[in-house]
Amino acid sequence: MTSSSVSSHVSSPAPSSPRYAAGLAQLARIEGRSPPSLETALADIAPDLARFAIEFAYGDIYARPQLDLAQRQLATSGALAALGNASPQLKFHLAGALQVGCTAEELVELATHMAVYAGFPAAVNTALVLKELFAEKGIALPPKPDAQALEGSRYARGWAGLQAIDGHAGERVIAALGEVAPDLGRYIVEFAFGDVYARPGLSVLSRELVTVAALTALGTAPAQLKVHMHGFMNVGGKREQLVEIVTHTAVYAGFPAAINAALVAKETMAERNLG
Amino acid sequence: MTSSSVSSHVSSPAPSSPRYAAGLAQLARIEGRSPPSLETALADIAPDLARFAIEFAYGDIYARPQLDLAQRQLATSGALAALGNASPQLKFHLAGALQVGCTAEELVELATHMAVYAGFPAAVNTALVLKELFAEKGIALPPKPDAQALEGSRYARGWAGLQAIDGHAGERVIAALGEVAPDLGRYIVEFAFGDVYARPGLSVLSRELVTVAALTALGTAPAQLKVHMHGFMNVGGKREQLVEIVTHTAVYAGFPAAINAALVAKETMAERNLG
Amino acid sequence: MTSSSVSSHVSSPAPSSPRYAAGLAQLARIEGRSPPSLETALADIAPDLARFAIEFAYGDIYARPQLDLAQRQLATSGALAALGNASPQLKFHLAGALQVGCTAEELVELATHMAVYAGFPAAVNTALVLKELFAEKGIALPPKPDAQALEGSRYARGWAGLQAIDGHAGERVIAALGEVAPDLGRYIVEFAFGDVYARPGLSVLSRELVTVAALTALGTAPAQLKVHMHGFMNVGGKREQLVEIVTHTAVYAGFPAAINAALVAKETMAERNLG
């Protein structure tokens, strides 16, 4: 370990378990190439970390049927955009999202949606990653949604959206804020639901999927996570999909974050009598 | 969306709602130029995200009278310094703080103050952003405070400060630590209060404002957030200012963080019989 | 503060308190040089922040006997790897870990271990920092552990490890997940314990030390922190070492994170009747 020692790493033969092979196949669908760049990057520093990513993350998790690859890439992108501390991986997975069929417009909407749950800096930084990515790929930018097409007042539109998506759980949040910070409650209705949720380009189901992944990864707002777990199911999400978003996010934010979110999911199911 | 497609984005006319105009005016006061760089940076990737930032963050929030622009820039800088994951925005808002009248010394103190609430790496990285910013602007650095001017022992000075600022809530924290980690309690008195809070250059009210914004954004320490909400009010902060710091921080850390802090504010007010 | 003002900072004489001298000596052992680079980097922007780091972090904390320097560098590296938002400091402290006697293999294992507690992106980014560091220092990479040497099924090996390390507290987590996300529980057994904890190169005691530091810094999973505080003591860690990991982490993640972890330690001790 002295400074005069020289690198003498002998590359080992590639692992060849069935889990590894399955993971390689999934990763090739996401990255659009093989061998994966992760294997190359870590080969001479932590090859087993690359193997674990391929065997566990891609071989075990991504191969599961509860979510399709496009949904997994949206969940991953939402989690990494919210954490804001892994921009190489965020770029990789936004590219992967395009590769498995997400549209450029969906990803721009995902970035915009993040303003609500992780703040404007997280949203802007995600948009700038997309800008770089689209430039590299020569992707035409999605046409700008016509804001004028949104009818009615922002508050009325937002309140209708909040009721339809989050139901009574969302209404209770606004009511609880009414006694201390009523304007904060109003901004949630007007901005989060009136401006953002009402936009086309990303389905309401995908918005709730992304929100659940982001709040699972952040780990700081279990009460809001439960509201959006209800929201995910209110707009058509299934129990097994919800549990899968949480399981999937273990890869990107660690097991403690996933365990805590799974316990919130359990409470959510009990409240819905789906336990 | 193939790699051979070319960019065909047609720039849309600038939005022109009253909220947008109000936001543009506030942002010009902070950035010291117009049109805002955010609008330019996002024009061909997520123009509506820029519009939302201008309409909602600057038009709705910054225009509110409960905090002045200098206080808002301190709150934003404290939140982003603590999160540590958005350094372009941190630099932008530290520059904005200078633009609206904060002194260079206040910002250096803000960086130093962060060591207590988000750790030394967050503090050092904020100081290095300031170093870059001051070099670009040719700003003379503030004279170094004379540490020798602080009289008495660090512990005695710190204990007096903790009592004056955080009151019984602060004393209870130290007592609770006494049974398990008494030295940690001693360091809070000596370092946080004896060394840092006692420094000139940033008022105690501003220190508590920055602390409330930082802990709201981090979202991981609601008990300490409540101690410092009491602290903010103990040193002269007003109820509506406290609620406004929380509302303001929604822009930088998202609504879930702000909702949780608002509910802590509600408990704080109830304890003070100001509910 | 106008753009035409010029820097007129007059460098002050170096501080010379006994705490400062003690801190300088500790820091020289970690950095392997003197004067410290931190003092130089902050000299003309926030010299007192550098002084506080030297007096408080290195003079007060690092000089304490409850943990040795190698353990402190592992704790620091685990905390910063998990936070993921201070990569210059992460690199500095990984280099410091080598300087005080940690092996290259231990650090690669630390990076790999992070996949479990902070997710794969945090693990991969830490491995890439190590790659850069080892290249700069001409360090030969550790031989790849022979995965085939791990006998038996991943689940059986993992379950035995989980029982030995986390005891009943770990078993209860898996049981609680069984009702909502049984596969997540299975992955914890197979991947976290069967694949990662079973690896040579980083002792189980060091793995629990790193885990406690990481979860203290993240601040988002107090229940899992308690499981691993029990785990640290189950594998031979001492009460005073556990409290010291928490106290040490105040330097890297701030006092609120340390206070909350100290209160979890208090509960842990009470459960073990060591209060």
Automatic annotation (TrEMBL), chains A, B, C:
InterPro entries in the cross-refs: 4CMD/NDH-1_regulator (IPR052512), AhpD-like (IPR029032), CMD-like (IPR003779)
Transmembrane segments: none
Superkingdom, natural source: Bacteria
A molecular function (GO) term: peroxiredoxin activity
Segments forming domain Carboxymuconolactone decarboxylase-like: 47-132, 182-267
Name used for this protein in its record: Carboxymuconolactone decarboxylase
Species assigned in the record: Rhodoferax koreensis
